[in-house]
Amino acid sequence: MQRANPASFREAASRFVTGVTVLTALDEHGRVCGMTANSFVTVSLSPPTVLVAVMPGRMHRAISATGRYCVNVLPDHGRDLSRHFASQPNGGAAPDYDIVDGLPRLQGCIAWFACEVISHVDVSDHTLIIAEVSSCDHRDTTPLVFFSSRYHRGAGALVER
Ligand SMILES: Cc1cc2nc3c(=O)[nH]c(=O)nc-3n(C[C@H](O)[C@H](O)[C@H](O)COP(=O)(O)OP(=O)(O)OC[C@H]3O[C@@H](n4cnc5c(N)ncnc54)[C@H](O)[C@@H]3O)c2cc1C
């Protein structure tokens, strides 16, 4: 099978607009870890099921060890948090968490999903981590948006309902 050139693939994929999330979890020693991720996908409504694609690293190990993670959707002013959790620390104040039902939750997010892992599938250099959502909530404010490898503010203009 012919394979797309990786640089072209990256450029084309960057034209698919996403929000930005931070995955949070406790590792096997009870330490909080977080990782920026835009591979968050809702899979099914009943039961509420989501997936994220995670590369090997600290977050992958934490989720594998505990079987739980929280998806925190960043607000429009969350660029520095996104950088912080993508190993590009901003030098600013440490992010604030609440620990709720044994899961770290980032303060100030526009939505969060507490997730219990039900399955995982290794695909090339990532693992698809599929989970049922045990609780979630949201508030109505504007999101941080990732498009063309850059951060943007807001939900865009409404075209039609
Ligand atoms: C907007 C945005 C969206 C992103 N979305 C995603 C996403 O959906 N999924 C995702 O996985 N990343 C995503 N990233 C990248 C991710 O946030 C960073 O790579 C982050 O530093 C990973 O944190 P960590 O603590 O898990 O990794 P660390 O433990 O700090 O490791 C850093 C990197 O080293 C490599 N690495 C470490 N250990 C191993 C190992 N055992 N074998 C092979 N490689 C290894 C991996 O590439 C890993 O990501 C995104 C980044 C940005 C800016």
UniProtKB/TrEMBL annotation:
Coiled-coil parts of chain: none
Keywords of the record: Oxidoreductase
Pfam families, A to Z: Flavin_Reduct
Domain Flavin reductase like: 13-153
Entry keyword Oxidoreductase: yes
InterPro entries cross-referenced by the UniProt entry: Flavin_Rdtase-like_dom (IPR002563), NADH-dep_flavin_reductase (IPR050268), Split_barrel_FMN-bd (IPR012349), StyMonoxStyB (IPR054802)
Keyword Oxidoreductase belongs to the record: yes
Molecular functions per Gene Ontology: FMN binding; riboflavin reductase (NADPH) activity
Protein name: Flavin reductase
